[in-house]
Amino acid sequence: MVPTIAYVIVSAVLFTIGVAGVLLRRNALIVFMSIELMLNAVNLSLAGFARQFGSATGQVFILFVLAVAAAEVAVGLAIILAVFRHRDTVDVDNMNLMKW
Predict the structure, then answer these.
(1) How many Cβ atoms from other residues are within 10 Å of residue 78's Cβ?
(2) What is residue 54's DSSP assignment?
(3) What pLDDT is stored for residue 20 in this prediction?
C-alpha cells in the first residue's frame, strides 16, 4: 500500500513544475500545458485523500475537475489558435490584443 504522503509529495512536485512553467515560459502552449499539469496535480492529491478516508467524494470532485479541464482545453486551444492566425505567434509577450 502506498502511503498518502507519497501522493501529496508527487502532487506537490507536479504542481511546482506547473507553476514554474507558467512563470518562466513565454510560449502560450507551454503555459497552457503547465496549467493542465497543475490541475492534474490537484486531482492526484484529491485521489490520495479520497483513498485514505475511504470516501468517494474526492473521486466525484476529480470528475468535475476533469470536465472543467476538458472544456478549458477546447476553449483555450481555440483562443490560442485564433491569436496565432491573427498575430502569427504564440509568444505571450507579443499577445497585446488590446493595443492597436
Answers:
(1) 10
(2) T
(3) 97
| CATH of the structural domain 4-94, one choice from 3.30.110.40, 1.10.287.3510, 3.40.50.720, 2.60.40.420 | 1.10.287.3510
Domain assignments of the chain as residue spans, ordered by start = 4-94
Q: Which residues contact 36 (CB under 8 A, 6 or more apart)?
A: 18, 69, 72, 73
Q: How far apart are CA 44 and CA 96, in angstroms?
A: 35
Distance between CA 59 and CA 95 in Å, rounded? 37
d(CA 98, CA 100): 7
Greater confidence, 94 or 29? 29
